[in-house]
Design brief:
6-stranded parallel beta sheet; about 325 residues; UDP-galactose 4-epimerase, domain 1; globular; binds serine; alpha/beta
Length: about 325
Amino acid sequence: MKNDKILIVGACGQIGVELTLALRNVYGSDNVIATDIRNEHPLLKGTGPYYSLNALDAVSMHELVKKEGITQLYLLVALLSATGEKDPKHTWDINMESLLQVLDLGVQEKLSKIYWPSSIAVFGPTTPTTDTPQKTIIEPRTVYGVSKYAGELWCQYYNQRWGLDVRSLRYPGLISWKSEPGGGTTDYAVEIYHEALKHQKYTCFLSENTYLPMMYMDDAIRGTIGLMEAPADKLKTRMAYNLAAMSFSPKEIAASIQKHIPDFTIDYNPDFRQAIADGWPKSIDDAAARADWGWKNDFDLDKMTADMLLHLKEKMMQVA
Ligand code: SER
């Protein structure tokens, strides 16, 4: 672990910011190189090396891997479910080309490990909706889900064909206060906290009883590093692991917020994202992750609400 040098591609996204900071704590700041096509996220500034990199620029990525002596690569670039539907072909290109390029680079440069996130979006309306198992019917209906499922199969293929150690998790909706979400169907569960503090009211783009699997970012980061540090022989699947923490509806998250902000009100105005949510599981069975490499979540809905409101309030006071 001490000799590892990590490259993060897409370090300024919702997962990237927190994962970069966490990996810098574990591996040392100089051993975690952050890159993104965007400007460096304010929270990353001064915490370690940063390069501007287009994830589809294979030549520049290859040069950087060689120059920095990279041994592990985290590819976090993706267009998510809601944004993806606006330009399906472009979404496929970004999500797939970046992955295939990284998998080839991994084989060529003999990288020791690669991480690439998958999502509950691989599941579709024909999947069992409650406690969705690791192995089940998978017929995604969004281009994001199609790209994630195809990507899982490619990861498994490169593992079997070339021995590449590529690992993946099917994240549920991720809720965070440090970095902003972008373009997902589960983003309402972040927006709602911001609006509760700012305006004490929120209009939700999903209907009140839409249950979805969700997770606090602290758990997602711990799970990601846990999977990456697990001994390779413990991993019984080379598709992505189901990962779960909680499941709630807009009505339930609103009730959790009302325990802290009694005047908070919510109303509902479902848009095109309702159909996406309706095609996804309500809850996930992650027994395989728990058994194979010891995954365990820490946050439930009320614990997450207390933490989110505390940190967002502090952040708003700093800005004011
Ligand atoms: N949070 C993602 C989305 O809503 C699911 O992986 O698109």
